[in-house]
Specification:
The structure is a single chain. This protein folds into two domains: 138 residues, OB fold (Dihydrolipoamide Acetyltransferase, E2P) (Beta Barrel), CATH 2.40.50; 251 residues, BirA Bifunctional Protein, domain 2 (2-Layer Sandwich), CATH 3.30.930.10. It has 15 helices and 18 strands. The strands form four sheets. An eight-stranded mixed β-sheet has the order 6-10-11-18-17-16-15-14, sandwiched between helices. A five-stranded mixed β-barrel has the order 1-2-3-5-4.
């Protein structure tokens, strides 16, 4: 049998008293006509005297009680809605006797509605003078203590609803996250892209190098995987079908480690653009990032992970080979695997000794990347690290790929798509050999995709960015930016 604290017992008794009056302690619909933001925008410039002299139409607001003081013949409270808090003033002689008694039963955390007119207190605070008080929901548990809130991170994530109630910055962050994705979506639609949907369940993982989640499809009696990319190979099949600009925003899943930059399920956007290449993509994504940053933050400048960034400044271009040489002294096309390992050892970078040459080079690059502020584009990656882009015409050892670098991290990846099915078949063969040698990040061989390419896919550019970009704009871990992150079940 559950045990209740004294506070919880008192609240349940109050709920019973409310019910005894024929009022549902957990409420019904109300016709909300205004909110705290609208009231402040409409009346913020009005003086106390101007408000008293105005003929006003009553407003009806609703929200959660965050403060209460006084309950004799008059009382004040602040109620919180989606935009913030506003003060309410209640007088015993201004509302009905039953309504004032309901107010007497009120506790912090209860949800109520109030009808009234706008005035300023003697202290100058814009407030609602109640002419009607409506009880909606009795909170049976108290809110966290106001000045300390939820200090423990585990509790914050497990009871995120309380974190959002108590911390306006967290609440505002999720409105910004919606703005982040809607700005990207609207930008692409404005540029003529078609939003499509591709399968979340796949019989073969493709489009990225990552460990998938595996499950079983009962109706077909087959094992399937949750997608590890935003339908990359499917979107390219859409290009084969004749769509010239397509994109998708959705959830993707990778059964890998957690960090401040990585989640197992997260939102990703990918687009594919026929007849364009990675240089066209650099210009388009630069424009998109500038628009997103200004929409979300209201400025082009922000700080993240200790870096000061201005998204409007001229973007640098780093060459993969050159920047590694400049930062570490290693020439990646001349060095031996032993020299790469010696350099990793000297930099105190941990690695699996069984890794092949190019995966070790990739670790070296990731060390270098942490020193780069950006905004910048990385170009000239070796073909061995990604089998899907076209090769550079000027240097076939390298792919026609770019990555966006911000605050020491990759913040978007795009490339001129490989549409030569014969070349791709050879690269898949190399990836298969790497996989057989133990490389868990090698790409899978996809015969169906090669067959689609044999029907002809136009030259194209593809690009992807995840919610990691948003977490960097907020300068928080990506887990903090998930409203309800995955939690280990309670023991």
């Amino acid at each position: 049998m559950r045990e209740f604290t004294e506070q919880e017992m008192i609240r349940r008794e109050k709920a019973a008293k409310i019910a005894a009056k024929g009022i549902d302690p957990f409420g019904h619909r109300v016709d909300v006509t205004s909110d705290s933001k609208q009231i402040k925008e409409m009346y913020e410039e009005k003086t106390k005297e101007e408000l008293e002299g105005m003929k006003q139409k009553p407003v009806l607001i609703a929200g959660r009680i965050m403060t209460i003081r006084g309950k004799g013949k008059a009382g004040f409270m602040h109620i919180q809605d989606r935009y913030g808090q506003i003060q309410v003033y209640l007088r015993q002689d201004a509302i009905s006797e039953e309504e004032y008694e309901l107010f007497d039963y009120a506790d912090l955390g209860d949800i109520v509605a109030v009808e009234g007119t706008i005035f300023r207190t003697n202290a100058g605070e814009l407030s609602v003078k109640a002419s009607k008080y409506i009880h909606l929901v009795k909170a049976l548990k108290p809110l966290p203590e106001k000045f300390h809130g939820l200090a423990d991170e585990e509790t914050k994530f497990r009871k995120r609803y309380l974190d959002i109630i108590m911390d306006s910055d967290v609440r505002d962050m999720f409105y910004k996250k919606q703005l982040f994705w809607s700005t990207i979506r609207n930008f692409l639609i404005e540029k003529g892209f078609l939003e499509i949907e591709t399968p979340v369940l796949e019989t073969m993982v493709g489009g990225a190098a990552a460990t998938p989640f595996k499950t079983h499809h009962n109706a077909l009696d087959i094992d399937v995987y949750l997608r590890i990319s935003m339908g990359e190979l499917w979107q390219k099949k859409a290009l084969v079908a004749g769509f010239e600009k397509v994109f998708e925003i959705g959830r993707q899943f990778r059964n890998e480690g957690m960090s401040s930059e990585h989640l197992q399920d997260y939102t990703q956007m990918e687009f594919y653009w026929a007849y364009a290449d990675y240089k066209d993509g650099m210009e388009l994504t630069k424009e998109m990032y500038r628009r997103v940053v200004k929409a979300v933050l209201g400025t082009s400048k922000f700080e993240s992970r200790g870096f000061k960034i201005d998204i409007d400044k001229e973007w640098e271009i780093y060459d993969f080979e050159k920047v590694i040489k400049d930062k570490t002294g290693i020439g990646i096309y001349d060095a031996t695997i032993e020299e790469i390992k010696e350099k990793l050892d000297s930099l105190k970078i941990e690695y699996d000794p069984a890794l092949g040459f190019w995966r070790l080079v990739d670790l070296l690059w990731k060390f270098v990347r942490k020193t780069l502020s950006g905004p910048a584009f990385l170009v000239g990656q070796p073909v061995q690290l990604n089998p899907l882009p076209k090769r550079q015409v000027e240097d076939p050892r390298k792919v026609a790929q770019m990555q966006i670098i911000l605050a020491g991290s990759e913040m978007g990846n795009g490339y001129s798509e490989l549409n030569d099915p014969m070349d791709l078949e050879e690269r898949f063969k190399e990836q298969r050999e790497m996989s057989e040698a133990g490389d868990e990040e090698a790409h899978n061989d996809d015969a169906d995709f090669i067959e689609a390419l044999e029907h002809g896919m136009p030259p194209a550019y593809g690009f992807g960015v995840s919610e990691r970009f948003f977490s960097f704009l907020m300068d928080r871990s990506i887990r903090e930016c998930a409203m309800f992150p995955l939690m280990r079940p309670k023991a």
